[in-house]
């Protein structure tokens, strides 16, 4: 105890402001104390050696974030070692960017504002216009010294901020979700021995890792066509998925069903000895929706069926003559479905301007995540693009305030070609 007392006594004494200091400061500032409230708050700035608030950060809140917090919800920060951190609510994702402020911002706990600093109405007194500045200053100082209702309270500044985090709503970042699931693609129970079990992820693990909100994550699982198998989320090998959907479509011909009168249970029962029932039900659910014309029956979604068939034809590194590809593509579909070039959005491109007009695969999920690098790849694959063609490869970078067109204006140049606007490389 004795050594502790010696140590405390050896510390330098911290200067405490007094009411005399307050009166003097107000007088030098040429303010009238009679117009001030009853309470004076003296600010004490933290010592550099005793600052224990280094973990405090200042975050900008837009109306959505403010409402989310006031309702008692949680904000989640997500980001790996090589990722920019994002902020997620239940339904939206925000990018975080550190911004500097020109004026220092002080964080002062328990600081009282004007309405809390007075127990009586503000006191006002007119001052004669003929009085000189010196005589007014003397009267004010005398008034200060005579007032007995003024109190002085200490307020400690917890931290001084020179920067803050601003938020910007962005598209959910599903690339990591796609890449993680691609490591353990499911190709049938007979091939499960090849899967590294350490690379399997549960739904919750993927949600914690993927930079998106919970609602967006549920939509992302649909986009990548994820299936829960033995408590782990998986995606199907593209060839295996093509096989499953081909078998399901074959059941239509075997039973001579109309495209809008497909029976789900009969389809699954016909194939459950070949394909696991859980896989059949998941694939059927993705490629169909309830029929509008036949209660209890289902209709295959033309666009989704066309896209999986196109993926089965387009192989990485191969080019196809346009007419040959379109003919083959149409032949893979059940009777009643028709191909459409717009169904190739994000999976393949048709290049009619090259020396050899062709169709080639170009998966959006295989392109760089950097905007500049992505545009380099796009213009290497094809010299000129229409807005509809290039949009699926750019829309992942859009925000509520940044459109596809504004991004194209930054990285590409436009011109009219045969009455149609096209985009070309700037370099």
From TrEMBL:
Signal peptide: none annotated. Keywords: DNA replication. One of its GO terms (cellular component) is chromosome, centromeric region. Residues 120-135 have a biased composition (Polar residues). It comes from the Eukaryota. Pfam families: Dcc1. Residues 120-144 are annotated as: Disordered. GO terms for biological process: DNA replication; maintenance of mitotic sister chromatid cohesion. InterPro entries: Dcc1. PANTHER family: SISTER CHROMATID COHESION PROTEIN DCC1, SISTER CHROMATID COHESION PROTEIN DCC1-RELATED. Belongs to the DCC1 family. This is Sister chromatid cohesion protein DCC1. It comes from Lutzomyia longipalpis (Sand fly).
């Amino acid at each position: 105890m004795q050594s502790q007392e010696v140590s405390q006594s050896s510390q330098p004494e911290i200067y405490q402001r007094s009411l005399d200091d307050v009166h003097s400061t107000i007088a030098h500032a040429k303010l009238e104390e009679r117009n001030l409230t009853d309470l004076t708050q003296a600010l004490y700035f933290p010592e550099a050696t005793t600052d224990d608030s280094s973990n405090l950060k200042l975050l900008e809140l837009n109306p959505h974030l403010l409402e989310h917090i006031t309702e008692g919800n949680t904000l989640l920060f997500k980001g790996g070692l090589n990722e920019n951190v994002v902020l997620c609510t239940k339904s939206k994702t925000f990018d975080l960017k550190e911004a500097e402020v020109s004026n220092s911002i002080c964080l002062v706990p328990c600081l009282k504002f004007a309405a809390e600093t007075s127990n009586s109405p503000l006191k006002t007194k007119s001052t004669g216009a003929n009085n000189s500045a010196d005589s007014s200053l003397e009267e004010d100082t005398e008034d200060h010294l005579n007032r007995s209702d003024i109190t002085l309270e200490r307020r400690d500044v917890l931290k001084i901020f020179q920067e803050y985090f601003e938020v910007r709503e962005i598209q959910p970042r599903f690339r990591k979700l796609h890449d993680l699931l691609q490591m353990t693609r499911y190709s049938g129970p007979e091939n499960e021995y090849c899967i590294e079990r350490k690379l399997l992820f549960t739904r919750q693990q993927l949600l914690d890792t993927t930079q998106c909100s919970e609602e967006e994550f549920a939509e992302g699982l649909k986009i990548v066509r994820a299936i829960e198998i033995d408590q782990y989320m998986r995606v199907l090998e593209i060839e295996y998925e093509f096989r499953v959907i081909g078998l399901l479509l074959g059941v239509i011909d075997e039973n001579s069903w109309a495209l809008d009168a497909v029976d789900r249970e009969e389809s699954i029962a016909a194939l459950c000895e070949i394909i696991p029932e859980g896989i059949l039900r998941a694939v059927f659910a993705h490629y169909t929706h309830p029929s509008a014309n036949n209660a209890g029956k289902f209709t295959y979604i033309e666009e989704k069926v066309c896209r999986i068939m196109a993926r089965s034809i387009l192989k990485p590194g191969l080019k196809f003559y346009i007419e040959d590809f379109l003919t083959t593509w149409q032949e893979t579909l059940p009777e009643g479905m028709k191909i459409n070039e717009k169904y190739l959005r994000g999976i393949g491109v048709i290049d009619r301007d090259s020396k050899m007009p062709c169709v080639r695969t170009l998966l959006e999920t295989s392109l760089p995540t950097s905007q500049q690098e992505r545009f380099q790849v796009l213009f290497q694959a094809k010299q000129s693009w229409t807005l509809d063609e290039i949009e699926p490869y750019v829309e992942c970078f859009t925000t509520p305030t940044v459109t596809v067109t504004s991004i194209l204006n930054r990285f590409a140049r436009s011109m009219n070609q045969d009455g149609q606007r096209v985009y070309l490389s700037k370099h």
